[in-house]
């Protein structure tokens, strides 16, 4: 399947949904100091899976013949349309929470607001998290989008085995080198405000490598491969619940993504695709809104109900259900309409600027290719 015919991997979308809930529970457990630290102790590493998935899906879906400033501009507009509206909404929600005194822990100044507004908060410009703290990873994503042409150029110039060596070297240097960049003992895998965009870089490039390997996987595209992928992802969830082993997690995430994509590609339509796709659609809103809802609703509810730490499991399950419903409605009534509006505006602008061009058929073909890209990425 060519990049211009890109499909949506609904099982990978479901993984993103599970991972978003995992990050939420990772933060939810902090509402009571009595809750066992063993409760999904390392699910914060799911953020690194997000970076791998982004690199995989975006590079797989990107038109192979897209070149030049116009193609890059269109790519960036569509990526900004994907991430920015909900980021802006969550930022404004935190302004309100701080204004009414519900959020007292964040160090959020007018300068922090500017950094967050411009999505620069993970670029080493500050020494603390602020406002909607999970949005640091969206800042890191933006960095990867900006350097995406360079990463794709590298991927096209070298053999996959060489690219694999480069990815491994990046992980080795950034995650295990004694670099003064990171503020926490966990080094790169604990980075967020402290150059978190560099934490995203090896995983995003890893995703590009996986997309290349996927394109080479035609002889292995059998339906039974999906079971290997799902099993590997399940193993990663279990491992993260017990061990804080980032390197093992990255390896399991990578294998799960590749095996799942290979297996799912053998299906014309994967069973339950509509439900899996709908759950996948909620993942971004779950990730971006969970901290605000935790502060405004779930934490006060925990205190008001007088729950004990041993009741956390059922409470977390109920919170996941409520958060998923809220995210589903947010996607339907805000996130997706806002994205479509921006993309439509960009399409109108591109059509207007190319109205006098003598190359209308090529422009039309490019529009179709980018439309396919948008569907696959989302």
Automatic annotation (TrEMBL):
Record keywords: Acyltransferase, Hydrolase, Membrane, Transferase, Transmembrane, Transmembrane helix
Ranges of residues in domain Acyltransferase: 12-326
Cellular compartments per GO CC: membrane
Statement: the UniProt record of this protein carries the keyword Hydrolase: yes
One of the GO biological process terms: polysaccharide biosynthetic process
Transmembrane helix listed as a keyword: yes
GO molecular function: acyltransferase activity, transferring groups other than amino-acyl groups; hydrolase activity
Pfam family for this entry, one: Acyl_transf_3
Protein name, per record: Peptidoglycan/LPS O-acetylase OafA/YrhL, contains acyltransferase and SGNH-hydrolase domains
Species, as recorded: Bradyrhizobium shewense
